[in-house]
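Render this sequence as a predicted structure.
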Amino acid sequence: ATEELLPEMSDFKLGQEFDGEVERISDHGAIVRLSEAQTTGFVHVSEMRDVYVSHPAAVVSVGQKVRVRVLKADRGFLGLTMKNIGKKSVHDFMVGQEVRGKVKVVKALGAWVDIGADTEGLLHKTQMKEDGFVDDARRLFQVGDEITARVRWKDEAKGEIELSLKSAGEVLMPLQRGLKVLDLKEGEETGGIVKSIQKFGCYVDVGAE
């Protein structure tokens, strides 16, 4: 089996790092026992290296000590990765926070920036100028450019982060999962995702149950 049932998923946070030991290897990945947590997690073969790995045995062996980070902790399954060890996770960044980074990829719709996180932040073309329209991000940036931006939005569950070069007032509130309807107050600002649009208005997911 490639999955281990765990009693407490709430103890684990995305991006959290552990030392572990490879306990078992399959064609799809490896079971790693976490020394500090006294439990096991699964590292898929695609999460062992940044390059293609044909078989887990080409990277790890039973009994090998490895450093891993939490990729997913949901419904009794603990997914781990051996990539981006030592880097921050999306959880470590705050909306509105100023960050410095280097442009890694540029396409027409925007630039992807290495800000020291385990995922690159997206600087969309609509967030590149305080005023004015940008039709192609490649006209403003190229790979290797260093920039200072602000975190505009993040989704910890999906591991996504968006950046902006606009003023601090342009940032978006993060979506807060786990809220109760009674927690919301009239006139209060909160983050949300538009789920559907109707003639009379739109439905917005604000994270409330």
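Summary. The chain has a mean pLDDT of 84. The radius of gyration is 20 Å.
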